Structures are given as C-alpha cells and as structure tokens.
C-alpha cells in the first residue's frame, strides 16, 4: 500500500475516496481523526457553480481526536457536560474544500504536528465497561443539576480518580484519551437515543449508559455541542474503537467449584 501523503492541492474525486484515504492515513499515522466541521453541498444554495454531487460536502475539516476548540453549547444537560476539557488540545488537522471547478475535494491546508504520543491500542470491551462504571461514580462530570457541577477543581479531581482506576485495565491511559473515548461513546449513544425512528438502542453498552437518559433532550441533536453556527458534525472517525458485540457471558460454576 502506498504511503498516504497529505499536501496542499491533493484532490479526491468523491467523498468515498476521501474517507478511504483518511482511514489509510489514520493507520499510517497511528492517530485517529474526526469530522470536526463540515458544510454539505445541499447547505450551500448560494453557490451557483456546478459541484460534483459525489463529493457530498462543500467543505470539511478533520481534526485529531485529541484536538479541537473548547466546545460551545446552546443546549443543556449531557451535551454541556461532555465538553469539559483539561489538557491543551492537539492542533493537527486537514481542511478540504470543493475545487474551483467543482469536480473534486481539495486539501486547502493542514497541520501534521501532534502534541501527544502516537496512538495506543484500541479500547476493548472490558476497558469501555470500566470507563462507564467509573464515570457513573462521578455525577459531577455529567449531571448539570449536581450541586458542584460548576466546580472545575472537583471535576479535575474526579477525572484524576478515573485515570487512576483505569490503570488496572488500561495501563498508561491519560486524561485526554479518557475524555476522547467518553465523548465518542456518548456521541454514539446520544444519536441512537435521539433518532427519529423511536427504535430501541441495540448497542451492547446501551443498558450500562441508561443512567444518562434523563440528561438527553431528544429535541436537540448531538452536533449542537460543537458550535452555534450549526456547521459542526460529530462523525468521529474512531467508531470502530467501540466493539460491536458485548463480552461473552460468564460460565456459571458447577457444584464442584470448577
């Protein structure tokens, strides 16, 4: 496989081609990127020139999963609580826009410098379960009605406790890695809960996260945590880090204790 190179002027003839490149680039860089901001072609009625419909997006910016601005929120509850950050964000990004001819997406600018270690192994089921269990013990991090919800020092202390507790299942885990994984997990769960089909959540971790249900406002979509201009999109590119199936059931012990 050719080395996936990023440079200004590099083009992609379709959104599918772009996402395939991003996946290869993530593997090569050992980093994860998410769609930090975007604007679809359908949202640009004032642009009269032809734009290839296979591009889907007029412009799009991918950021390192450890990066991004401190999120703004117009909503209440869960979306506000998960925007909490403690460490300096990573500034690595790739920004693309439809070319002047409108036939491809073109890289306009980028930054490949990361301010953190290269990516670790993916989170497994046991680690994600431990993450959920630990967050549940610290409602100050997610419950806006908590009496100390605005106490950042207490939030910092709670997060440090989670980092310490998770060392047993994921050695070397950091605050920023925990926050990124939690945000990804909640993004998926929230979008399931606020879908328009009224279907039940079928993700294996849904039951473990039901303690958050009273925080979710079904009238507000998850992307509203990202910015008030409505252009942010939470399609985080680490969705494969959440295993598709739950851990196998434990075998009951027989009378002999075997």
TrEMBL record:
For this UniProt entry, which residues form the secretion signal? none
Q: Where is this region: Disordered?
A: 224-258
- Alphabetized InterPro entries for the sequence: MADF-dom, ZSWIM3_N, ZSWIM9
| Bias (Basic and acidic residues) | 224-242
* UniProt cross-references to PROSITE patterns, sorted A to Z: MADF (PS51029)
Residue stretches making up the MADF domain: 130-217
| Name of the protein | MADF domain-containing protein
Q: What is the lineage of its organism?
A: Eukaryota, Metazoa, Ecdysozoa, Arthropoda, Hexapoda
The gene that this protein is the product of is AUGUSTUS-3.0.2_05829
């Amino acid at each position: 496989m050719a080395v996936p190179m990023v440079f200004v002027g590099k083009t992609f003839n379709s959104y599918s081609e772009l996402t395939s490149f991003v996946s290869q680039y993530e593997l090569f860089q050992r980093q994860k990127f998410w769609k930090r901001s975007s604007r679809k072609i359908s949202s640009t009625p004032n642009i009269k020139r032809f734009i290839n419909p296979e591009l889907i997006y007029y412009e799009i910016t991918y950021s390192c999963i450890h990066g991004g601005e401190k999120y703004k929120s117009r909503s209440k509850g869960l979306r506000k609580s998960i925007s909490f950050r403690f460490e300096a964000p990573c500034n690595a990004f790739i920004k693309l826009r439809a070319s002047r001819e409108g036939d491809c997406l073109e890289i306009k600018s980028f930054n490949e410098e990361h301010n953190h270690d290269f990516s670790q192994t993916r989170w497994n089921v046991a680690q994600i379960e431990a993450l959920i269990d630990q967050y549940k013990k610290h409602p100050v991090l997610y419950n806006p009605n908590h009496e100390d919800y605005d106490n950042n020092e207490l939030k910092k202390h709670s997060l440090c406790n989670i980092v310490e507790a998770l060392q047993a299942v994921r050695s070397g885990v950091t605050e920023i890695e925990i926050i990124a994984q939690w945000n990804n997990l909640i993004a998926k769960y929230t979008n399931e809960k606020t879908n328009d089909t009224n279907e039940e959540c079928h993700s294996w971790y849904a039951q473990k996260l039901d303690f958050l249900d009273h925080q979710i406002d079904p009238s507000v979509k998850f992307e509203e945590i990202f910015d008030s201009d409505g252009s942010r999109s939470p399609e985080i590119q680490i969705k494969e880090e959440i295993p598709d199936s739950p851990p196998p059931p434990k075998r009951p012990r027989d009378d002999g204790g075997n």
